[in-house]
Amino acid sequence: MTVCYAPCPVVFDLDGTLIDSAPDIHAAVNAVLREVDVPPLTLDQVRGFIGGGVEVLWHRIIVATHLPETEQRPLMAAFMARYSRSTALTRLYPGVLEALGVLADRGHPLGLCTNKPMQPTRAVLAHFGIEDLFGTIIAGDSLPERKPHPAPLRAALAALGAEPDAPKGIFVGDSEIDAETAEAVPVPLMLFTQGYRKTPVEQLPHFAAFDHFDALPALVEQAVTQ
Ligand SMILES: O=C(O)COP(=O)(O)O
Ligand SMILES: [Mg+2]
């Protein structure tokens, strides 16, 4: 694995890492289900379905609600129309703004690599006024591949100046998918433990784990100087 010399690119996952978006996703999912007379899902259920992008989310909803597979496309479209500007229930995790500011001030190029589609990604970043902090945004519909395929993270690192063949940088994420993606690139993963992960921390490959964003800048410098 290649760790870089300071200041190296730091790329972030979005849902469950920078933002707790599950309440807005949950509300939009249930509004769509209500339209087809399907009982609501719990917040825990929907949170457990997030991470693979909108197709995976709706595939899991279809399976859980026993709806016919033919419903997936139209319901997903109805969801996207509703969710794309939904930010009212979404929160930044504590310390995110400060940590991004510290890393940016230290000269780290910052990027975003999410499986969430671009339109809601841009809407939520604009809502929190943090869009301009990121030198690149690779979303779930930016490339033919999505995480855990290494292509999206490789593209984000390359856009921030990393060498395409042996990218150096750090990935910050919350999920099984993020751990797999970081290994596939490979780059060190800083695992945020308060996100949407379902696997115990010790079973997920990671360079370091943290439960509050206050800790992140020091972990990044550790990875860089090791
Ligand atoms: O929208 C999703 O399913 C996942 O998004 P993430 O990659 O930012 O966690
Ligand atoms: Mg995530």
From TrEMBL:
InterPro entries: HAD-like_hydrolase_sf, HAD-like_sf, HAD-SF_hydro_IA, HAD_2, HAD_sf, PGP-like_dom2, PGPase_prok. GO terms for biological process: carbohydrate metabolic process; DNA repair; glycolate biosynthetic process. Keywords: Carbohydrate metabolism, Hydrolase, Magnesium, Metal-binding. Pathway: Organic acid metabolism; glycolate biosynthesis; glycolate from 2-phosphoglycolate: step 1/1. The active site is at D13. GO terms for molecular function: metal ion binding; phosphoglycolate phosphatase activity. The keyword Hydrolase applies. Signal peptide: none annotated. Its cofactor is Mg(2+). Belongs to the HAD-like hydrolase superfamily. CbbY/CbbZ/Gph/YieH family. Specifically catalyzes the dephosphorylation of 2-phosphoglycolate. Is involved in the dissimilation of the intracellular 2-phosphoglycolate formed during the DNA repair of 3'-phosphoglycolate ends, a major class of DNA lesions induced by oxidative stress. PANTHER family: PHOSPHOGLYCOLATE PHOSPHATASE. This is Phosphoglycolate phosphatase. The gene is gph.
